[in-house]
Amino acid sequence: MGSNRQIRGVAFFLITLCFIFGGARAYALPQFLMRFNQDPFSRPEFRNQCSTCHLSPQGGGPRNPFGTAFEGTDHVITPALRAAWPARFLQSVTTAAVPADSGQAKATFFANEQEVILEIGGQYFLLRQKEARLERIESQVVAQRMAAPPAAPAAAAAEPRLPLRNQPTFDHYLVNLPTTLPYARRSLSMRFTHRFAQPVIRAGDDDCPECGDVTDLFGFDSFSYSSFGGEIGLTPRIAATFYRSPLDRTYEFGGVFQLLRQQGREPFSALLRVSMETRRLFVIRGNTGENERFQTANLVLPISRAISNVAEIFVVPMMSFRANPLPPLTSPFVAQGDLRRNLGAVGLGASVRFRPRTAFVVEWLPRVGGFHATDSRNALSFGLQRTTNAHVFELVLSNTLGTTTSQAFSMGARDFSLGFNLYRRLR
Fold it and tell me: Taking the model in full, what pTM does it have?
């Protein structure tokens, strides 16, 4: 009974966060389409079409590039938006002729909302609204103005954008599993991870009296492990990484090399990540104890296949050399997994973008051979990611407190706890 209450509580908590992370309310979406329909410069063939802003003709789900740009203006149609999307908007709109004493009068309104051409009795006049000025012009000038392409929108200063902003994967990690998101040249970013020690769910049917519920803020009041690191893009294909975790005071230094990027004839993306972890261990020698550093080398090959900009699937083979820091003496009572030094695993993951700036991610890190500590399990993690131009925030539910490469693959437990990741692009 206790376990079921914990699961219901966490499910309610995560469903609530889905609504928060989901962004705009569903019932507001037809209002935005109506706003497009009512714009006098919108092209008639795009009116009343959900595909004007969404990838799906039925609407809902991820937006297409125009829908993303429309959202970026807070769903306000501006002259700059019209100029940037001439396929969606007319450059000018001419009214029907109105009878006048000297013949007929017509007006042509331009999408920049600054100029109007008046035709009165066969003569043309240019009204500059911003300057409150009226001048007469020749018919040849009118023809040129009507045929001129729309002016390009002025460049505006903005935050540094994340790479592949419109792709299904927002971060260089799902939760702990590395992705194939490329690093931009001269980019500089920071990565923070936070894992709370108090569990909120226990796998299996066993009760979990120590698990956190709503009265404990689902473990947010508990002790936590906070880690941080930095990443820098050296070239369009090469990056250097640094990361520090308080678990055994571990430092991880690494490099990234972009092998493939899904585009053109390349059917998938692939990276090669190499890192070295150094951790501090307390070792008993004789009747005394002392600290010493222990090194672990990691080789990771993330491979992915994106499905439009909605989803991406990951397969991540990994090898960790000297993953077991202190193998015990050979004994018939010690499991073989505890005696092995190296670790082999194949991580599996997916990212599904269900809102323009929100994605659900999941990863499973099954070990296929080598070091397997007694009572340890394969790591399983879930996350909700929310992205802006330069930030990715992720709420995490995971059964591992380890966040370095070898710790994430080897420290799975039966208890799941909450945490969060924060990625910040500095340059």
Answer: 0.65
